[in-house]
Amino acid sequence: MYVYDAFDRTLVTERVAEFRDQVVRRLSGELTEEEFKPLRLMNGVYLQLHAYMLRIAIPYGTLSSEQMRMLAHVARRYDRGYGHFTTRQNIQFHWIKLAELPDAMADLASVGMHGMQTSGNCVRNITTDQWAGVAPDEIEDPRVLAEVIRQHVTLHPEFTFMPRKFKIAVGASSHDRAALRVHDLALQLFRNDAGEIGFEVMVGGGLGRTPFLAKTIKPFLHKRDILSYVEAILRTYNQFGRRDNIYKARIKILVHELGVEAFAKEVEAEWQGIKDGALALDPAVVAEIAGRFRYPGYQRLDDSSPELAAARKSDRKFDAWVGNSVANHKVPGYAIVTLSLKPEGGTPGDATAVQMDAIADLADRYSFGEIRVGHEQNLVLPHVAQRDLPALWRELDAIGVATPNVNLVSDIISCPGLDYCSLANARSIPIAQEITRRFRNGDLARDLGQLHINISGCINACGHHHVGHIGILGVEKNGEEFYQITLGGKADENATLGTLIGPAVPYAQVADVVEDIAAAYLELRQRPDELFIDTVKRTGVEPFRERVYATR
Amino acid sequence: MPLVENGQIVEDRYVRVADDAPIPDRVPVIVSAKRFLAEADALIRRDGSLGVAWPNDRRVAELEPWLGHLALIALNFPKFRDGRAYSQARLLRETLGFRGTLRATGDILRDQFHFLVRAGFDSFEVKKPADARVFAEVVGRYSVYYQPGADGRTSALRRRLQSRAKMPNTRETV
Fold first, then answer.
1. CB within 8 A of A375, min separation 6: which ones?
2. How far apart are CA A366 and CA B66, in angstroms?
3. Which residue of A has its CA nearest to B151?
4. Contact yes or no for A518/A448 (Cβ under 8 A)
5. Which end of chain B has the smaller Cβ count within 10 Å, N or C?
6. How far apart are CA A112 and CA A489, in angstroms?
7. Among candidate residues A130, A146, A144, A173, the one with its CA nearest the CA of residue A372
8. CB neighbours of residue B58 within 10 Å
9. Is position A134 within any domain?
10. How many CB atoms lie within 10 A of CB A478?
11. How many domains does chain A have?
12. Domain that includes residue A434, residue range
């Protein structure tokens, strides 16, 4: 956990005061909706189909139990008793009243939370691996430098009105759990041949109507230079990014149109002029930030406790959950536990106030008061003693967050779609719900193995459909909802964009198509342990296309 | 449109001269970038303060040879959300060392004031009189900033260290 100090608290409080003034001016008519729009967007407030929506930043996906309780309070007091965790590790509330927004924000500010950087054309909330600080394959905790960058870009005077939003992700493991390469700026911490830790800098990734994977412009950047180099990238983008067409305004288009070499050269020239100035990062500054991350006082425990082994043996359901939702921790005797927010028939990423309060209590009892949010829209208890797993599982199961489907076919990433969003062309959530019902049989889901389905209700791709093993994109045809299906996308360190398999199918057939694809995979795979994504890579989409369209 | 300088609404000393109009003597004037680039040598020899209105889609580095002769540069925000001139301002102040007046023009509302000040502006053509009147109050709304800017304020990252024990490292970095 990063612990706020007086500076952080003062800024957030002053921000609430400013927003309160803006809401008063809007309600009195002094500000037009057009003038109010960029101001509310700078605080995470959107106007959606039915109401205002408030998006709250969860920097690098780390939450304290106290913060989770406050989210439950906001859900209860200002919304309809639930919240929605997003693919950018944020949470959104969809039923907020404008007049009550300043109070909701003041409540959030009391625990160091806010909506800054969750909307508008600024640097958005910085994301990272939800296992940061506990993953066995990590070279250091990426949240420390993510926090340094977060602070630097918060209310940045130069980069608050850029051509478009700007998303940064930071990774520090060999396995990418943060979908780095689909970000505007991806920073991968690694150790070079000289033994120094620095960043590989990749720019210009993004999905939407023109998907690109980020390209490397700096193979190794010293940590000392991270702020000046980020500043040089943002300055180049702010001046030269396109502003004539909202669909061509992201940095990926600038990088594409200039060419990655020319873009890198422009950044390099800017960077040379500022790298030794005020932004050169003093190790003492980094140490100061690192010092305000609190790490648990772990006990000395051994891996594979006999209690755990006995419990797995005696309870098949528990055993299946451990096999699915529990991962190795870097500290012996501990485990990383994923809480599935994807129950059968549920809305991916939704949690009720009751669940949030219960999860906060369980975090206090079993995970040193800490919770993580992952981009897959699940939650994580990052520091659970292995011997506590049976007791924890019973309590998680009781509140409906122990479905053993993490990384399986029903662990669906979905945007809110036409049920909430004014941009959407088609519904997403009911598609996800129907697929979870079709694959409710746990044995079948386990047999299918790792299989990521991503659903977006429009081309803006908030559900990251391009990088789903199965991607589903809602489009509108003559006033009806149709869905394009892609196969073979992935968002990890070998990120790939999916391939379209054929004409879009109507709403009522989407779940049938997914079942056909699953059946085709079971026939096509060479061995039971050949993953879906590897089968698609080996065979291409053709045999799947044949199967899906043979009878349509 | 009211003009704000030093936190006060002030009379504008400058006259904006159209491209085809004669330039009055001994009066501070603002000319367009096009006219300035065409007539720079004559303009800088003229008696009277000279300002240029620079568009937000041209590199400010083009002005470098003449910066010492310019009393004012007016940068433009055609829309609230078009933030190119923030970068131009910081480049002029921090990279090119421009010390004259930097004026923000266009769609300027109270909610930009602190960003503008931090980017190096010191003169503001404010769109609404009500916003201009509360300039001093609004611009002081934030007492802490995380990042260094062109206004010379110390960043929170650095102030934290200063407010702790004396650090052996006194380099002025973030």
1. A61, A87, A88, A89, A127, A130, A177, A178, A179, A413
2. 66
3. A157
4. yes
5. N
6. 37
7. A130
8. 14
9. no
10. 5
11. 4
12. 413-549
| ipTM confidence score | 0.92
- Asked if A150 and A271 sit in the same domain, the reply is yes
In a domain, A68, yes or no: yes
List of chain B residues whose C-beta atoms are within 8 Å of the C-beta of residue A277 = 94
Facing residue for B84 by CB, picked from A227, A238, A279: A238
| Residue A293 in tokens | 């991350």
Beta bridge partners of A350: A84
- Residue A191 corresponds to which tokens in the numbers above? 């150790």
Report the C-alpha gap between A344 and A410 in whole angstroms. 8
Share of chain A above pLDDT 70, in %: 100
Pairing of β B101-106 and β B123-125: parallel
Distance linking the first and last C-alpha atoms of chain B: 38
**CATH assignment of the domain containing A90:** 3.90.480.20
Q: Residue A469 burial by CB count (10 A; 0-12/13-18/19+): exposed, middle or buried?
A: buried
Q: If you compute the radius of gyration of chain A from its CA atoms, what whole number of angstroms results?
A: 23
The dihedral through the CA atoms of A422, A428, A433, A436 has a sign that is negative
Q: Are A299 and A385 in contact (CB under 8 A)?
A: yes
Neighbours of A231 (CB within 10 A): 25
What would the pLDDT profile of B134-173 be if each residue is shown by its tens digit? 999 999 889 888 998 888 788 887 777 777 644 444 344 4
Query: Is a pLDDT exceeding 90 seen at residue A51?
Result: no
CB A198 within 8 A of CB A223: yes
A11–B82 CB contact, under 8 Å = no
Choose among A343, A310, A335: nearest CA to A392. A335
A216-257 confidence digits (pLDDT tens) = 999 999 999 999 999 999 999 999 999 999 999 999 999 999
Residue A47 above 90 pLDDT?
no
CATH of B3-142, one of 3.20.20.70, 3.40.50.970, 3.30.470.10, 3.40.1080.10: 3.20.20.70
- Report the alpha-carbon distance of residue A258 to residue B87 in Å, rounded: 20
Mutate to test the interface with A, among B59, B86, B90, B143 (most CBs of A within 10 A): B86
Positions of CATH 3.20.20.70 in chain B:
3-142
- CA atoms of A279 and A205, how far apart (whole Å): 25
Q: What is the pLDDT of residue B159?
A: 79
For A156-186, write each residue's pLDDT tens digit: 999 999 999 999 999 999 999 999 999 999 9
- One-letter amino acid identity for B23? I
Residue window 65-94, chain B: list those with CB within 8 Å of chain A: 80-84, 86-88, 90-91, 94
Place of tokens 């056909």: A516
What pLDDT score was predicted for residue B164?
61
Q: pTM, whole model, 2 decimals? A: 0.94
d(CA A346, CA A367): 26
Element (H, E) at A240: helix A226-240
